[in-house]
Batch of 4 targets.
Target 1
Amino acid sequence: MFTRRLFLASAAATVAAPAVLRAEANWPQRPLKLIVPWPPGGGVDTFGRIVQAALSAELGQPVTIENIGGSSGRIGTLAAARAAADGYTVALVNDTFAATEAIPIAGTPSLRGSLAPVTLAIDAPQGLFTHPKSGLATVQDFVAAAKARPGRLNVGVPGLGSSQHLTSELLLRAAGDLRVTHVPYRGGGPLLQDLVAGTVDAAVVTFSAAAQQARAGTLVALATTGAQRTPAFPAVPTASETVAPGFVQTTWQGFLVPKGTPDAARTRLHAAAQAVLRDPAVIARLGELGFAPIGQDGAAFAALIDKTVETFADIASVRQIAAGD
């Protein structure tokens, strides 16, 4: 009887295996959930909503966005890591994912070990913005004010320990080891609302997140952190050409899935993302906001994550920044 049971179990597994393989090969067969670990209105949410419809069309299934903000992206990213590894939950993260890995919370697992990179989607500069009544007309004005009043300028960031916070610290160090008071928000959307209202003096956010307000004149773009000026905003200087020679620190965004997601699903998702990033309409829309499509594979994305973690860990050590500060 024992031998017969083993035989029947083996036979059942043999029959089931092709069915599983067929299901993986036909992925996706139902809607996908795209977790954006930030509230609506920030740079990650903006990119997600630009590509949402095109990604749905490429995959032949609806793609719904779920915003899960909090703890500098940790809460939403952790939700993605805990999801079933079946390809139907995807996380869209930016370099704050690397920032939270560089500044871990004691007792929490590394999410790099729980999520698999699929596609490095885009690259973009961060932006230093202010409001029209701040009295800061240029990035040189900002630096002068920071020097004259160490620690008294309020600079909003989408969370302490976020990529924008650490990029701000990198810029401040490069511009003369300046000190400001960083004010944390749950995401770029809430931060920009307060900046428009004049609640904070300035903010560092992904440039695209504030592009519309800059065009409308409700915000003033002081500088970008890219190597060159953003084509859509040629009048806005880079930090490198003004107050921090040689300084370049861009932000990136990409897709991750829970570790263990079938290769067939990861391959299909990557191909769909590449196709979307080659779509002329998507490229045009991204260009208006300062996003540059990349579309590199999971291996390249993993290498970039590791490099960014090292950069952020270094500045966190220098500035004595710890999780929860």
Target 2
Amino acid sequence: MPRAATVHDPPSAVGTAPVGLWRFYAYFLRLGTTGFGGPIALAGFMQRDLVEERRWITRQDYVDGLALAQLAPGPLAAQLAMYLGYVRAGTLGASVVAILFVLPSFLMVWAISVAYVRFGGLPWMQALFYGVGAAVIGIIARSAYKLTRLTLGGRALLWSIFAVMALTTAWTEREIVWLFILAGAVAATIAAGPRPLSASAWALLTVAAPAVGAPAAAPSLPAVFWFFAKAGAFVFGSGLAIVPFLYGEVVQTNGWLDDRQFLDAVAVAMITPGPVVITVAFIGYLIAGPWGMTVAALGVFLPVYLLVVIPAPYFRRHVSQPLIKAFVEGVTAAATGAIAGAAYVLATRTLVDVWTAVMAAATFLVLTRWKISELWLIGGAAVFGLLLRGRFA
């Protein structure tokens, strides 16, 4: 009987079906090209395809990767994909998977960004995003509603954190970063009771907690890169968790985009496959062109990548600790509240008439009752916006 693996063992694929590395990598290229539905759907595709059907990844490795993705900062689907690449081929595997998984949506966003800048002033483009923006409000609201059901349960502490963060975000119209850390610390402290946190637990919480820093003051390329690198450290679980942070800094503080441009950026992420946080590439393009979108994408995914290839073995050892789980639950509740608050703020600027309000409400209700891809709803809203505005040229 083989010995149990330790955190110091190199990654291996013992117990999995044989597969060539490039065939394994090609799967993530295809998933990045065709994977719609958000992080939960993408994680489900990986479980179905890689664990259940092809047996390229063991169930335990998948569960460990999912736990790490939920624990550490970073968009869930991208981090899970990188971890599975790490399991098969170490740091090289994580690196190749990261590139192939993100590249398709990056190229699609590039093409959309070029068209948006070139034709953004034309009536038909404005009419198109008139409908799309309203649908995005419904999608964000649905995401906040779904996250509350999945993460808060009936726990009064988590609901309190959610309410405080939602009200704070709605009132200040920006995300207060230190409240995320405070929420996690409060949850961990209550879970610990009279017991002090161990040194290793505090070390892991320090790694998981995002660094706080001043926002960039000017849209130079180094400033754009550093800003989005910090932004990548605030995405817990759902890629939409980055929306309130970006809105507060990109629109309210730095003034790099206006409200309409920011909402259009979120819409672009919704109509492309792959990770939702690719919205940062569109924002980067509007700020500083092709190089801006490149450094924005590199910045936001850098923390994700580093939290896979550097501390992943140690997270595997500590992931079941109750204090670590409590910290993540507190941060997740705060992120869910921030999404709800951001939805309210964006709605006050986007739902400018009865028709946009109807489209947002219809999008929310359809997503709540039926399993329909957001892509179809955004497409329908775009067509409705064009017809409503009566502009086709």
Target 3
Amino acid sequence: MKFVFVPPQSGPVSGWVSRLQDSIPGVDFVAPETEDEAVREIADADAAFGTLSKRVLAAGKNLKWIQAPAAAPNAGYYYPELVAHKAQVTNFREIYNDHISSHILAVLLSFAKHLNIYRDQQREHRWAPLAPPAHHTSFLPESTVLIVGVGGIGAETARLCAAFGMKVLATDARREEKPDWVDEMGGSDDMDRFLPLADYVILTIPHTPQTEGLFDRSKFKLMKDSAIFINIGRGMTTKLDDLADALYAGDIAGAGLDVYEIEPLPANHRLWDAPNTILTPHIAAQAGAHLEERRYEIIAENVRHLLSGERLRNVVDKANWY
């Protein structure tokens, strides 16, 4: 068996190659430095890691498996030729569940206790306790959260929200079984029914042909004017101008974003000054070097699965990008 790490390669790849070579005998792990070298090496390869150009993919006629370099690669990764290729694609989902769900809860709790507002007042040396109903106030055990997308991150977020006593609604395009900590589960078609019930709406969905631009002004109009919107999944699922319109118009009470339709968020975008917002620069998953170890473990596990003919972990529906 031959496994090719397609260039360009990030820092840990060289370490992965030597570790894999030492721990899994019978596999030739190679890391070419140029696309021309990758074309030559992939011609007789069984597996590959990285983002494959059309030229490299066309040369990989024997590929059975491709490991994507992210949990949800950027738009364009799953181009038509890759979708049509016989190779299975796997991704790095599940490795961020704890990190991203804790970030979501940090944002949710900040809104629940108005910490973002008090932080601004601290900078101004201003002592000004907020008096309801001047701002959105919620008692979590009497609040409802809607989690849109109940994969690994969404399910862990549901567990944490339930631990705070919140009523948890959830929708998912694929998952049918309801996790124990979700009170009511629905499919994508149930989202509009759930939106008016939620005090917090949390997006953990990937960017797919079906979810691109899903949250627009019409979705925000369905939400309570006291509701908080949090997007931690992919920026392309939410139309930023529509979100800004909803915030300035008071259609919703606030928003917390870690991902954006445009990244970096332009310095002159209205969202920077929108009322009651918490904006972080796509950092929810950046927590600890052990994430690289989790990536390595998925690659090593799937190499062994391919050798033994077992089902690969984290297989992607290529046509739907996840």
Target 4
Amino acid sequence: MNFSKSFLPYLVMGMLTGCTGPKKQNETPIDVDAYKKEIANWQQQRNAYQVSENGWVNLAGLFWLKEGINSFGSGKMNDLIFPQDKIPEQAGYFVVQGNTVTVKANPDVKFLLNGKDSDGGILFHPDSGRIMMAYGPLRWFVIKREDKLGIRLRDLEHPLLKEFKGIEFYPVDPVWRLEGRVEWADSSRTIEITNVLGQTLQQRSVGTLIFDYAGKTYRLDALDEGNDEFFIIFGDETNARETYGAGRYLYVPLPDSTGRVIIDFNKAYNPPCAFTEFATCPLPPKQNVLPFAVTAGEKNYGNH
């Protein structure tokens, strides 16, 4: 979900110039050619991100930890089995004590812990930032999902990186760049969000985006991620047909000085679970499932 901070620069607002395309009711005219170029650039960045070090294609494992000792390495005797030939058979072990995870390397094994040689130390505690471990092409760190602690593993030499064929997109169509408004919520409002693990969380919703499409009015509840954008998890009638079955995501810039928001479905994108089985994606709340086909943005990728 942090993809947008680096790769989703909402440049459309800078393109509100002379009208070169069709104008609809309540729509600010845009330079359509410039707009299409910006969306094409966003698409290129999306594809580049997937095969970057922080992308989703290189994920090689997600291992949930148990309280106490969790051995890891490439050998089948381990609790956590890492890829063969890329790490010693018995590399070390993680120790879980409550919400703290420490790691210890076996003799003659050295890791990089946040870029420095180490044979162990604290890998996670509730107040820590992300601590990354590395051995050869492997990278791993701790993730927390409610009461579950797990190791997310990356392989920078993952075979799927070479097989990545790129994301397929719907043709860019300005008709899916919709103007709307925000119905702000009070600070206590939360909505239920369920993830693919079956965990249901109450998450802060800063408000509801309201927009018109094909003569009808629709609403999308927005989540607060603590930045200058709304985060939307939505479903529509293309899901499980042309787009990912469990919905798509969308970032929407905060309102401009007139209170207007731009809901650009040409930037609707796949959740990580479309690219890997080792993600823990949130699913659309029922009120965000639109009763029409949004034929814009990313189409499905792979068979996850």
